[in-house]
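Can't paste images in this forum, so I'm doing it all in text. The chain is below; anyone willing to post the predicted structure tokens underneath?
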Amino acid sequence: MSPLSAATLITNDRGEWLTGVSGLLTLNLDTFSSGATGGAFTSGGTVQPGNTAFYSNMNGYFNNNFQIVGFSNATNFLAHTLASVAQTWNNWGTGAILMSQTKDTTNTVSLRVTFRSGGVTTPVNAFGFALGLGGNGGASGTITVTPQGMAAQTVTTFNQASGLKFFGVTSDTQTFSYADITITEPTRWIVLDNIEQGVFTAPPPTDVPDVATLVCVGTGLACLGVLRRRRLAEAA
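Text version of the structure:
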């Protein structure tokens, strides 16, 4: 038996990420949708395209499975907005999105995604989300994602017309309670949608003969060949 290779895989392909992931939980931000009323998304009235809800506090947006908090220096900022035709900056072809504060030359802008179960922070070994970089006419750019316990990972986003870029992690060696998302380019902001978590199970090991087994098989075949030639010689 070959040993199971332990690894942490980072991918921009959601189909690849889903391989081996079960118990999938997804936060689809379109719950903040046109016509929705009340709840955590509005302070009254009806949500219309272009509306925005702000979570400018240390709790940010949260439910039983996820919590997203925005940071900008010593303050909190997180916006949940519904795309509209008139406001093209929030239209990523995906309906509602979460947005960070806009980066300037002096502030530090980031979002933290925390994974939960039953409202309590709970480490996972598989997570993913869709990312974009707002501003600058929707041009592509770079976002840094730092999963707990890992080095910072650079994600090159698509331009806004092409939509959001998936970032996913699976691991059979470690778990993650959170992931931090940051940007460095001024006048831009983070766009986040479709946050997911699950349970990753690595594929079972494959049967591969070890070296000793291969040597024994080879020796046995050689012996059979010698015996066959000897019998043929005796019969001649």
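The longest strand covers residues 189-200. Residues 1-5 have pLDDT under 50 and may be disordered.
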